[in-house]
Amino acid sequence: MFFWIATGIFIVSYGFIISEKLDKTKVALVGAGLMMALRIITQREAFYEEKYAIDYNVVFLLISMMIIVNILSKTGVFQFLAIKSAKLAKGRPLWILILFTSITALFSTFLNNLTTVLILVPVSLFIADELELDPFPFLLSEIMASSLGGTATLIGGPPNILIASKIQLTFMDFIYNLTPAILFVFFFFLLTLKLLFGKRLQVKEEARQKILAINEYKMIKDRSLLIKSLCILGLVIPGFIFHDKLHLEPATIAILGAAFLLIISKEKPHNILRELEWSTLLYFIGLFIVVGGVIKVGLISKLSDGMVSFIKPDAESMFPVAMVILWFSALASTIVENTILIASIIPLVTDMAHSIVPKELDFTSVVQHPTLMPIWWSLALGTCLGGNATPIGASANIVTLSLAERAGYPISFKRYLIYAIPLTIEMIVLSNVYIWLRYYIIKL
């Protein structure tokens, strides 16, 4: 009975989140409440038992990074860099597009994707308006660059944070395995942007001169706060890189960074905390509990058994599984928000690992078995990049299009799909090539 009730709660919650009939945070919290109220998962299990509980490492890492970014954004540094890039490109729109895309990807390697687009999209709209250009090429490229950059590091996006936390991967594991993949994909992405939009991005000379006349240094609102923020960020990022050698979790390093920045910035905590994305954080908490419920009743185990029976994986070579995971997660990400998708697939892959790896090994040795690692990298690439294909595939997409519409540049669902689907397919094909070459041909 509990199996079907839990599965029903999961499917109904999933359906409402996809349809956007109700706010996803409300749906996740209702689903979590029902799971506990109906005793499918107890409150103690949901809060404290490692196998089913809320992943507090993820929650506090997000809270802390939101605090740091919120304080840093008050300095105006992001707007400064955007205007400076436009001037470095001498007002030439194609080079502005390439620079903005690169900046978005770079920022997204250590900032939340949603935060990155919230900062850069208004500036892109401003520059497109000044140059009298259609902002669509800028917005589309920034959406995709945010997911590309976010895929490259442990802290770039929720999917990677969740994978790292569940199977105990380090910051450098992601740098070594995913950053080369993203650089490979990003190079071809820029070439494709040039082919798609190069001839269309033409501006009048007076508009170009107008951009060159903007004083970017006036964008910096608080130099003292900027120096303090960069100093803290300069300690936090290396902390993430060496967290395994320091024997500290990424969340602990982020908490220390956020706490010290709050102290030295002299910002009032209630002002900073009020501006955090609490709905996103509560969505994560509710989602963890809902997924914990279906793990407990055995739904994930049944799905795992079904996948094993269908693919028939061989412990000596998991290439077919890697490809299925890559393409399935990419396809599912086009309609399912990647956090709920990754939270559902991680336990499925973990359970599958136990069926093909020697059972006498401990949990970490099982999930980090050499034959399993390409599966995790395939999952990260598929989940992070697949969401680019549709306007509802990721929160960054939804927010970007909403900002464009508010600024008077509505982008239709159809127009987005015409460009985004081919670009996303290109990214997944290139990811497929990378996984195949690196782990099954060269075997690095």
Automatic annotation (TrEMBL):
Tell me which family the UniProt entry assigns to this protein.
Belongs to the CitM (TC 2.A.11) transporter family.
Which organism's genome codes for this protein?
A: Candidatus Jettenia caeni
**Official protein name in the record:** Citrate transporter protein
Has UniProt tagged this entry with the keyword Transmembrane? yes
CDD domains on file: P_permease
* Gene Ontology molecular-function annotations: arsenite transmembrane transporter activity
Q: Can you list the GO cellular component terms from the UniProt entry?
A: plasma membrane
Q: Where in the cell is it found?
A: Cell membrane
Which keywords describe this protein according to UniProt? Cell membrane, Membrane, Transmembrane, Transmembrane helix, Transport
Name all Citrate transporter-like domain ranges. Answer: 14-382
| PANTHER family for this protein | P PROTEIN
Q: What is its main location?
A: membrane
- Segments traversing the membrane: 54-73, 93-126, 175-197, 225-242, 248-264, 276-299, 319-349, 416-437
* Membrane association type: Multi-pass membrane protein
| Alphabetical list of InterPro entries matching this protein | Arsenical_pump_ArsB (IPR000802), Cit_transptr-like_dom (IPR004680), Diverse_Ion_Transporter (IPR051475)
